[in-house]
Amino acid sequence: MRVNISRVPDGKITLQQTSKVAIVTINRPAARNALTTNMWREMARMAAEIRLNPKMKVVILRGVPENFSAGSDIKEFCEMSVDEANEAFRQMEKAICAFEELAIPVIGAIDGPAAGAGFILALACDLRIGTKHAKMGIPVGRLGITVGPSFMRRIIRLTGPSKAKSLVYLGEMLSADDAYRSGLLNRLVEPEELHQHVLDLAETIMQQSKASLLSVKKAAALCEWREERDWNYVDPIDFPEGCLAFVEKRKPNFQDAITEEKER
């Protein structure tokens, strides 16, 4: 087994490559595996490394126990300009796309929160296996983040438009059972069984025709109509206030709320 441990100033990501399986592990439990821009960049690099290895047949994407990813690091956003934040989102989308567009199957092991961009990263996987610790959602409405078409496409293809809008409108975080019933999780297993269950799934997948595996993933992608466009991911007024409120653990004073209060 070849193990590549990438340490960036703010976290650690491990890439293990056996003869046929690549395992990517996000390791920043103190921040619930929230990913900084440097970590997203490293994720994209690892996906590229996996893509160049012709021996790889399955990828497993996971976090340390009781964690998947709480999304992007909001504290880091507080130190960015609006332009820098938009660029950070583009880097995030690049990393998510890099895993989504791998030709081989990607299995997400969801043990703990998959929130915000962590939720979208999970949805970029072909299969998602969860435990009772799993929680899934995209509560960006309190941050002034403007959810782009690529993010929504990934949610809508599994839940439909109405449920996808509800997740954002209401800031819902779904329990493991609700996520399973909504189709966001393919299976639920006990936490202590997750790692072995995912390895067993990988073994089953590797017994199938590689031609069939590659073709079904390509065909599924071709079934989706996509119109890629430039997108500003953050509101220039609400986003700085939402991030600051998150860090200060208070209710955000968004611009529309302030205007309505003055009119009373």
Overview of this protein structure:
The protein is of the alpha/beta class. It has one domain (2-194, 203-211): 2-enoyl-CoA Hydratase, Chain A, domain 1, CATH 3.90.226.10. 44% of the residues lie in helices and 18% in strands. It contains eleven helices and ten strands. The chain has helices at residues 37-51, 74-77, 82-100, 117-123, 149-159, 161-169, 176-181, 194-206, 210-222, 238-248, 255-263; strands at residues 2-8, 11-17, 21-27, 58-63, 106-110, 113-115, 127-130, 135-137, 173-175, 187-188. The strands form two sheets. Strands 1-2-3-4-5-7-10 form a seven-stranded mixed β-sheet, with helices on both faces. A three-stranded mixed β-sheet has the order 6-8-9. Strand 2 and strand 3 (21-27) form a beta hairpin. The longest helix is centred in the middle third of the chain and has 19 residues, at 82-100. The protein is globular and about 55 Å long. It starts with a strand and ends with a helix.
Relevant terms:
single chain; 264 residues; alpha/beta; 2-enoyl-CoA Hydratase, Chain A, domain 1; seven-stranded mixed beta sheet; three-stranded mixed beta sheet; 10 strands; 18% strand; disordered C terminus
